[in-house]
C-alpha cells in the first residue's frame, strides 16, 4: 500500500476509497500518545510545574491503556525519572507538547489494518498569527510515528490540527468555521472543498459546522475545547449562563446549530451542557515565569484563558478531566460521570496546562484498536 496518495494517477488513492475511516474517541484504544513539555516561552519556570501536570495526566490514562510519551533527547532522563515505569518514554523530538495537533489522526480498516493521516501543520496560523516559530520538529512527528508503528501514512494537502475535528465514528464530524475556514490555514479552499477533503481522508459523510470556538481560544477556535461527541448522536457543549460573558453568545450559537441539525444517520443531537469554569485569567506570578520571545505568543497578567471542561480525554476505562475551578469542578465531574457510567472519571489539576494554551485533550492523541 502506498504511504502517500498517488499523485500520478488520474484518481488519487485516498484513505476513504480504500476503506479506512477515523473511529470515535470513545471506541476502544490500543494506546495514547503524548509529548513532554519543556518550551520556556510556553511553560513557566522551565516547564517544571507543567511536567508535573503531564505526569498526572499520563498516569491517569495509563490506568486503562498504554501511554507513549515522546521526549526530546535532553529531557529523556528527566521524563523517564518522573513518569511511572509502565508509561513508555520514547525519543521523539518536538517544538512543543501539543500531541493532539502535531500528532497523527489514526484511521482503522474493517480488515484490522491501522493507518494515519499526516496533515500539514503551521503552528496554528503560520507567519500570520501562528503561536511560535519554527515548527520543523513538530512537522516530522507524524512521519516518525508511522515509521515506529510500521503503518501507512497518507499525506493530506491541507493544514489541519487534530483539535479542530471531532467524529462520532458513524459518519459525522464536528468542527468550527472559525478554525477550518480561517484564511491563515487554507485560504484557497471553500467550505465545500474542505468537506470533500474530510470525506476523502477520514471517511466522514456529514460535517456539522459550528460558527466559533471558545472565547479567546488561541488556536482560532478548536472544536475540542467547545463541543465533543460523547456517544453517537450525543455531544457535550461548554456552556455559560452569564449573558454579559462573550462565551454565552458563542455557546448559544453552537446550541442553535446543533438543535437544528441531524447527524449522518439522521439522528437529532442530544446536547449535554458542561458549565464553563471561571472565567479564568493569568495571575501576575504565573506570567512572570515565562520567557519572552518575539517568535512566540505573549502571555500577560490578566489575560483571560479559554478554560473548558469539554477538553477531557476519553480512555478505555477512564475519562480524564481537567480540574480548573473549585466552584465548578464537582458539578462538571458529576455530569461526566453520568455520561460515562461505565468509566472512572479522574480529575487532574490542569491549570498549568491551561496556562500553556490548551488542556488535557490538546496534549493527548488516541491510537485506536485496529
UniProtKB/TrEMBL annotation:
Enzyme's top EC category: hydrolase
Keyword Transferase among record annotations: no
Active-site residue numbers: 362 (amidino-cysteine intermediate)
Transmembrane segments: none
Recorded family membership: Belongs to the agmatine deiminase family.
GO terms for MF: agmatine deiminase activity
Originating species: Litchfieldella rifensis
Keyword Coiled coil annotated: no
Name listed for the protein in its UniProt record: Putative agmatine deiminase
Amino acid at each position: 500500500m502506498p504511504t502517500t496518495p498517488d499523485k500520478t494517477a488520474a484518481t488519487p488513492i485516498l484513505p476513504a476509497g480504500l476503506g479506512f475511516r477515523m473511529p470515535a474517541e470513545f471506541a476502544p484504544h490500543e494506546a495514547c500518545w503524548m509529548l513532554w513539555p519543556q518550551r520556556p516561552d510556553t511553560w513557566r519556570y522551565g516547564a517544571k510545574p507543567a511536567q508535573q501536570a503531564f505526569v498526572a495526566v499520563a498516569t491517569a490514562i495509563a490506568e486503562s491503556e498504554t501511554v507513549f510519551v515522546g521526549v526530546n533527547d535532553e529531557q529523556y532522563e528527566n521524563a523517564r525519572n518522573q513518569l511511572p515505569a509502565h508509561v513508555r518514554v520514547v525519543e521523539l523530538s518536538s517544538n512543543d507538547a501539543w500531541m493532539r495537533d502535531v500528532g497523527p489522526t489514526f484511521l482503522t480498516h474493517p480488515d484490522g489494518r491501522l493507518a494515519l493521516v499526516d496533515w500539514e501543520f503551521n503552528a496554528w496560523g503560520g507567519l500570520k498569527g501562528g503561536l511560535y516559530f519554527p515548527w520543523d520538529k513538530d512537522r516530522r512527528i507524524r512521519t516518525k510515528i508511522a515509521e515506529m508503528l510500521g503503518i501507512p501514512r497518507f499525506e493530506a494537502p491541507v493544514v489541519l490540527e487534530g483539535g479542530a475535528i471531532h467524529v462520532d465514528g458513524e459518519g459525522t464530524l464536528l468542527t468550527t468555521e472559525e478554525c477550518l475556514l480561517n484564511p491563515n490555514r487554507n485560504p484557497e479552499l471553500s467550505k465545500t472543498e474542505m468537506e470533500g477533503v474530510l470525506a476523502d481522508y477520514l471517511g466522514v459523510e456529514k460535517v456539522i459546522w459550528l460558527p466559533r470556538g471558545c472565547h479567546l481560544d488561541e488556536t482560532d477556535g478548536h472544536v475540542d475545547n467547545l463541543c465533543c461527541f460523547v456517544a453517537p448522536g450525543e455531544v457535550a457543549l461548554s456552556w455559560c449562563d452569564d449573558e454579559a460573558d462573550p462565551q454565552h453568545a458563542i455557546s448559544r450559537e453552537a446550541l442553535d446549530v446543533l438543535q437544528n441539525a441531524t447527524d449522518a444517520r439522521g439522528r437529532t443531537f442530544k446536547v449535554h451542557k458542561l458549565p464553563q469554569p471561571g472565567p479564568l485569567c493569568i495571575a501576575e506570578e504565573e506570567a512572570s515565569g515565562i520567557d519572552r520571545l518575539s517568535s512566540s505568543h505573549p502571555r500577560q497578567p490578566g489575560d483571560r484563558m479559554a478554560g473548558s471542561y469539554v477538553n477531557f480525554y476519553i480512555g478505555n476505562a477512564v475519562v480524564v478531566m481537567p480540574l480548573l475551578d473549585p466552584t465548578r469542578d464537582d458539578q462538571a465531574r458529576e455530569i461526566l460521570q453520568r455520561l460515562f457510567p461505565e468509566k472512572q472519571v479522574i480529575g487532574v489539576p490542569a491549570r498549568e496546562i491551561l496556562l500553556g494554551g490548551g488542556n488535557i485533550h490538546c496534549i493527548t492523541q488516541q491510537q485506536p484498536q485496529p
